[in-house]
Amino acid sequence: MLCVSVGPRTTDDAPSKDTLRNVEETGEFVINIVSLSLSNNMHESSKSHPPEADEFEKAGLTPAPCEVVGPPRVGEAGVSMECVLDRAIQLGSDHLLIGRMVRFHVRDELYQNGRIDVAGLDPLGRLAGNYTKVETLFKLPSEDF
Hints:
With 145 residues, the protein is α+β, with helices and mostly antiparallel strands.
């Protein structure tokens, strides 16, 4: 099970993104984990575009077919997870989308000894409109904390 939060736009002049509507209509979504090198593309994809716009084209990304769900995944992503919507929970003005992962895609060069090479992936995340990257990997328990 995976979840993603979809919130309203924070500016009055920007229309809402189509993400929530698309997921509720199709019952499917894809979570893509992209590398820092794709940060500007990821930011472009977060903008509000008209529903008829090709967001892959606007962001300079390649749509790749999924194997189980209908929406495409990001071809350049190091990791993509195809999900079927289990439920959408409204939390204030946000929605928490919970999905069952039905297919997992990992670029070959990132899969080593049964694990994902996180350093090689150089993952970028988005948290409440800000961006973050994983910089420090450590094992627990640790005497450093």
